[in-house]
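Field guide to reading this record: the first block holds the primary sequence, the second block holds the structure written as discrete tokens, and the final block holds curator observations. Each block starts with its own label. This record concerns Pyridoxal-5'-phosphate-dependent protein beta subunit, catalogued under organism Gillisia limnaea.

BLOCK 1 — SEQUENCE
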Amino acid sequence: MKEEIKVYDNVLQLIGNTPLIHLNTITKEFKGNFYAKAEAFNPGHSTKDRIALYIIEEAERAGILKPGDTIVETTSGNTGFSIAMVSIIKGYECILAVSSKSSQDKIDMLKTMGAKVYVCPANVSADDPRSYYQVAKRLHEETKGSVYINQYFNELNMDAHYNSTGPEIWKQTEGKITHLVACSGTGGTISGTARYLKEQNPGIRIIGIDAFGSVLKKYHETREFDSEEIYPYRIEGLGKNLIPTATDFDVIDKFVKVTDEESAHTARELAKTEGMFVGYTSGAAMQGVKQLNQEGEFNANSNVVIIFPDHGSRYMSKVFSDEWMTAQGFFDTKNEVDANQIEF
Ligand code: PMP
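BLOCK 2 — STRUCTURE
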């Protein structure tokens, strides 16, 4: 984990201790104080560096991983990048089964970091043999000396955040945090961070961000899996079509659902208002905060921490492309597309 030293032995020492940044403009009309936990400041540019390092080092401590072994994982991109980065420094092979919903940028980055990448169809059920879960399982079984990180069903995912993200936020806010808002995919970030924070102060409100098309919010409310909730959506890394055991639903107070379109616009707005070039799910988290503000969730004394999971550079061909936004029908007028572009 990152310490204040001048020279680092390798990139892994820069993981964690990410900054907490006050939001000044986008929240101007809101009640309360709002802070972004900017996970793009990790060396792999996302929160997933924390779990990659933690889970791999736990496997080393348990004697499961030996030099030259192979690490297998399913990923929407960020976890894969982080595992590939940790594998390079520590001398492991890295095999990744990724969803076809992942951007080409992300897939190219994984290959650049030395990973072997299998692209699997996004819109098949989790138990379909073509799904990235099943492909990863098969690759793990076929590869001798391999470890399957299995982030959706690995409690160590939660523990990584319990031991780092949670204590950091508690310290950075000097214990004054009243609300945590975080996207839920595997649920590791929100559950681990929330567990730590609720141990310090059980009154802290924990709010998860879910996508329309995902089962998490309904499951939280009913404890029943409702397949009717499932349909394709565009945000990558947020929401799920299954119930991950890496999520502790009991520490989450409520879920808010956000749309693809509003999350995309809010991600672009964060760049223009706060100068923060962050990813699609950061836009989704901020969009959730807007909705919560309207619902009256906050008051003047609220200190709200919003986790921004990754960097905007990973979405150049998507949310930050005018062509992509237009193709999704997310721009209403020609003017909106061209508002920033001056041609001679
Ligand atoms: N945002 C992005 C961009 C992600 O890749 C992920 C991980 N799937 C999340 C948010 C959600 O984090 P978690 O898996 O810890 O719930």
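BLOCK 3 — OBSERVATIONS
The chain has two domains: 11-46+155-328, 47-148.
DSSP finds twelve helices and ten strands in the chain.
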